[in-house]
Amino acid sequence: MDRLLVLARHGQSEWNLKKLFTGWRDPDLTELGVEEARRAGRWLRDQGYGFDVAFTSNLKRAQRTCSLILGEMDLSDIEVIRSQALNERDYGDLSGLNKDDARDRWGDEQVHQWRRSYDVPPPGGESLKDTAARVLPYYIETILPRVMAGDRVLVAAHGNSLRALVMVLDRMTPATIAGLEIATGIPLVYRLKADTTVLMKTVLERDIDQD
């Protein structure tokens, strides 16, 4: 049995480009973000991957990424399930602020702690721990059973909702997760063992000139 799980962060969004804290705000992809998503789909297609079901968030940058990946793979007709549980972390009072302006206001160390620490939330928002508290139950109850039943699963979501999953899959600690950055449009391919732990992980990246 394959037990295939592929995680993909959405392509560059309009607010990524502007260096704004996004969270649950809902900007679309940039032209580069569209190409990143399509390129991810081509990589997956060319390596022989396929999917039976896809999961994504309630935010259009992830939904559009999911659609573009599946379109490149000629899989636009498969089941796609949307859930708020996979949304990006809520950045609270930081949402919509420029990251450089936030550093000028609160200092580099404080902003870095809000962005990368495990359990320190920004004002009015969620920490990674808070995000994991909604992502992981959804993964365990809804996504993982499909993987273990043999469905090939794509999850197109966000940097922090995927960091919460990767932390568990890769057995990272609150200290080591602080250094993890998930790139836009680069698929993370997992194959799971019968006990749900990771058998193999591949970061599916290829030089764009080969496309």
- The proportion of strand residues reads 5-15%
Strand order of the largest sheet: 3-2-4-1-5-6
Alpha plus pi helix count: 7
The ordered string of helix (H) and strand (E) elements is EHHEHEHHHEHEE
Query: Can you tell me the residue ranges where pLDDT is under 50 for at least 5 consecutive residues?
Result: 207-211
Number of strands: 6
Helix content: 25-40%
Instruction: Note the main sheet.
Output: 6 strands, mixed
Radius of gyration: 17 Å
Describe the fold and architecture.
The protein is an alpha/beta fold. The chain contains seven helices and six strands; from the N terminus they run E-H-H-E-H-E-H-H-H-E-H-E-E. A six-stranded mixed beta sheet has the order 3-2-4-1-5-6. A hairpin with a 5-residue loop joins strand 5 and strand 6. The longest helix is centred in the middle third of the chain and has 21 residues. It is globular, with a radius of gyration of 17 Å. The C terminus is likely disordered.
